[in-house]
Amino acid sequence: CEDLPDLLLSVDSVLNTKCHQSNDGAIVVRGELGNPYIDQSTNQSFYLFSLDKENFFPLNKFSNLSPGVYKIYIQDRKGCLDSTNVTITEPPPIIAASISYTYPLSV
Question: For the chain: N or C, fewer Cβ within 10 A?
């Protein structure tokens, strides 16, 4: 990795959860420089990505995420790594208030 351009991981977008305690968040990332893999059939370059630094996949979108901090990893074909932390937030819970009203009685 020392003789190659530094592998870079960039965050393209973060979709926070729509509801309190839901798991509909998403993160989209991309890689740059380093030594990317090359798809032999399309001649397009790609990188591998992971949320746990063990299971890498050529998918740059992570979805169905709950609120929290995620460490995203990127790996190129030489095994070089980079990472970044991304936070998925959630809106506050909806609190319903009950209002009681007493109507005056007419006699």
Answer: C
- Please name which of 29, 35, 33, 5 lies closest in space to residue 15, comparing C-alpha atoms: 29
Note the pLDDT tens digit of each residue in 32-60.
999 999 999 999 999 999 999 999 999 99
CA angle centred on 45, ends 44 and 48, rounded to 5° = 130
Report in angstroms the alpha-carbon separations of 1 from 4, 72, 105: 5, 19, 84
17-47 exposure pattern, b = at least 16 Cβ within 10 A, e = fewer: beeeeeeebebebebeebbbbeeeeeeeebb
Pairwise CA distance, residues 88 & 14, whole Å: 7
The residue with tokens 């968040």 is 25
pTM assigned to the model: 0.81
Of the candidates 20, 104, 28, 29, the residue with the CA atom closest to the CA atom of residue 66? 20
Using alpha carbons only, what angle is made at residue 60 by residues 58 and 62, rounded to the nearest 5 degrees? 115
